[in-house]
Structures are given as C-alpha cells and as structure tokens.
Amino acid sequence: VKLAKESRSPLGRVHGLYALDGLQALEAKHVLFGLQDDEPRVREHALKLAERFQSDVAVRAQMLKLADDTDLRVRYQLAFSIGNIEGGPANKAFHQLMLKDGKDQWVRLAVLTSVHGRRGDVFRLLAGDDKLRRSGEGKLLLNALAVQIGAANHANELGDFLTTVERLPAQEGREYMASVMSKLPAKARERVSKAG
Questions:
Q1: Core-most of 14, 43, 134, 195, by most CB within 10 Å?
Q2: DSSP-derived 3-state class of residue 55
C-alpha cells in the first residue's frame, strides 16, 4: 500500500497499484489515490484499475473529472474506462472528450467503442452542439454513430436518433438518415420509411 501511495517514482506507484491488484488487495481508496496522482501515467493506469470500482461514488466522480485532464493519453483511456458508467454524467464526459480531442482519430474510435446502448443519447448531445456538429471531426463521429445505430437496430437508440434528426437542418438530417438506413435491416428500414 505504501508503494502505491508514497513511492517517489511514478513507475513505483503504478507497480504498487498492480501489486495490490495481483494480491487481490486493491480497494477503491487505493484507486482513488492513483486517479488523483500528479503523474499522468499513474492516472492512466489507475483508470484501467478503476473500471471495476465504478459503483463507488467517489471513484466514479473522480473518473469523470478526468475528461478535463491535461494529458491526452489519460483522456483516451477515460473514453474506454467510462463505457460502463450509465447515465447523463458519462454521456457529458463523452461530449467533453469530443470537444477537446475530436480531431484525434483514436479518441473518436475509443468513444465509438464505448457508447454501446446509449448511442442515440450521445448522438443527441453531439448533434445539439452546433460548432461540433459542423466540424469535420463532428461530422465523422455523427455519421459513424448513425451507422452504428442502424446496425444495432435498438428501438431506444433509433427513437433518440430520429427525434434528434427531426430538429436538424434538412440537408444534415438527410445525410444522417442515409447513414442509419444503410445499416438497418430491411424490415426496420420499411418501418422507418413508413413512419417518416
């Protein structure tokens, strides 16, 4: 425990956290120290270890704060690590990550892999940000989300998507509809076409 919290070496603190994990002695309080460490590599590894402690309110809150971290690799890991955190705060963190790092293709990919089950809500958040929606990286991400929404064919995601598209300028809405329709199964395409 002392190594994970007090080592002068960042590598030593990382090793301390993983040693506690290997001994099955890692607790939320240890991870919390790592998430608040001054060294970015310690925070990055602490995020990986924090994934199983997401039910702890303090750990979850500290994880979400890292959306504003100064280090790109920490924010990149965060995009993966918060994938299982449900609700609005995590969706807002994805939005923050896209505002800060949307130009980075790897961060976009990390966000896309982590928004399973909430793609419609994240689409709504991102599409509601005019500046992001009109940027090149915003268009790339929104089109990719639309394709995923179509391929997944989940009613809640499709409903969020369709509600959002109705509020967009007509040309943009048509582009995103084309993306979602390209992956929807035939029967679902027929239902959407009849409804729309």
A1: 43
A2: coil
Angstrom distances, CA of residue 61 to CA of 14, 67, 76, 93, 149: 21, 11, 17, 11, 28
Q: Which amino acid is at 123?
A: F
State the CB neighbour count (10 A cutoff) for residue 25: 10
What confidence tens digit (pLDDT) does each residue in 155-190 have?
999 999 999 999 999 999 999 999 999 988 887 777
Longest CA–CA span in the chain (Å) reads: 65
Residue 108, C-beta contacts closer than 8 angstroms, at least 6 positions apart: 98, 102, 137, 140, 141, 144
Taking only the tens place, the pLDDT of each residue in 115-132 is 998 999 999 999 999 999
* pLDDT confidence bin for 1, thresholds 50/70/90: low
C-alpha torsion sign, points 122, 128, 130, 133: positive
The SS3 of residue 85 is coil
The pTM for the full model equals 0.87
Measured distance CA(125)–CA(119) in Å, rounded = 10
What is the Cα–Cα distance from 84 to 115, expressed in whole angstroms?
A: 9
How far is 62 from 18, CA to CA, in rounded Å?
19
DSSP notation for 122-144: HHHHHHT-HHHHHSHHHHHHHHH
